[in-house]
Specification:
The chain has 172 residues and is α+β, with helices and mostly antiparallel strands. The chain is 45% helix and 15% strand.
C-alpha cells in the first residue's frame, strides 16, 4: 500500500514515509491499480471531495512513485552501510554468509548472484531481491555494486518492504 496526499500545489503526491500532514488516500502499490486510479476521474473527484477543492492528478504519478521508492531504498541502504548492517562485494558477502548473520540478500538486476554463493533470487530464507543497479550504486557510492548482504534489523525489514513496493510499481 502507498499513501498519497495533496501537496501545497494541490497536486497528489506519494507520501512514502507516511509522515506528510493531511488526510491521505491509500492505494495498492500495484502498477495497474495506480494507473487505473490515475486515469479514472473517480480518483480525482474522491480526492477533491476529501481535500475540499480541485486536485491535480499528475500524468507522471507512477514515475514519481518509482523514483521516490528508488531514492528511499538508496537512503535506507546508505544508513545500513553506515551502521555496519550492510556490506557489498562477493568477499564480504561470503564472510557474512559463513557467519550466518544475513537477513537479506540483494543483487543488481542482471547480476549473477550465484557467483557469490547467494541463494536463488526470490528464495525465502533469507530472502533475496533484485534492485536497479543505480539504486545499489547510489547507496554504496559506486557505479556498480556486486551482491549485498544485510544483517537482521529494522533497516533490512524496511529495505525489503520498499523493494517489494518498488517491484509492484514497476512490474505490477
Amino acid at each position: 500500500m502507498v499513501r498519497f496526499v495533496v501537496g501545497p500545489s494541490r497536486a497528489l503526491v506519494p507520501d512514502l514515509e507516511e509522515r506528510l500532514p493531511g488526510r491521505g488516500i491509500w492505494l495498492s502499490a500495484g502498477r495497474d491499480v495506480i494507473e487505473t486510479a490515475r486515469a479514472s476521474s473517480r480518483l480525482a473527484r474522491a480526492v477533491a471531495r476529501a481535500a475540499g477543492g480541485p486536485v491535480q492528478i499528475p500524468a507522471d504519478l507512477l514515475a514519481q512513485l518509482e523514483a521516490g521508492l528508488e531514492q528511499r531504498i538508496a537512503e535506507l541502504l546508505r544508513s545500513a552501510r553506515r551502521a555496519a548492517q550492510a556490506v557489498a562485494g562477493e568477499e564480504q558477502v561470503r564472510i557474512w554468509a559463513a557467519k550466518g548473520c544475513v537477513a537479506l540478500w540483494l543483487d543488481a538486476e542482471g547480476g549473477d548472484a550465484s557467483s557469490a554463493g547467494l541463494p536463488p533470487l526470490g528464495s525465502a530464507d533469507p530472502p533475496s531481491l533484485c534492485l536497479p543497479p543505480a539504486v545499489l550504486g547510489a547507496a554504496f557510492g559506486r557505479e556498480w555494486v556486486g551482491p549485498v548482504a544485510m544483517q537482521h534489523g529494522r533497516l533490512a525489514a524496511a529495505v525489503r518492504n520498499e523493494a517489494v513496493r518498488l517491484a509492484a510499481v514497476r512490474f505490477g
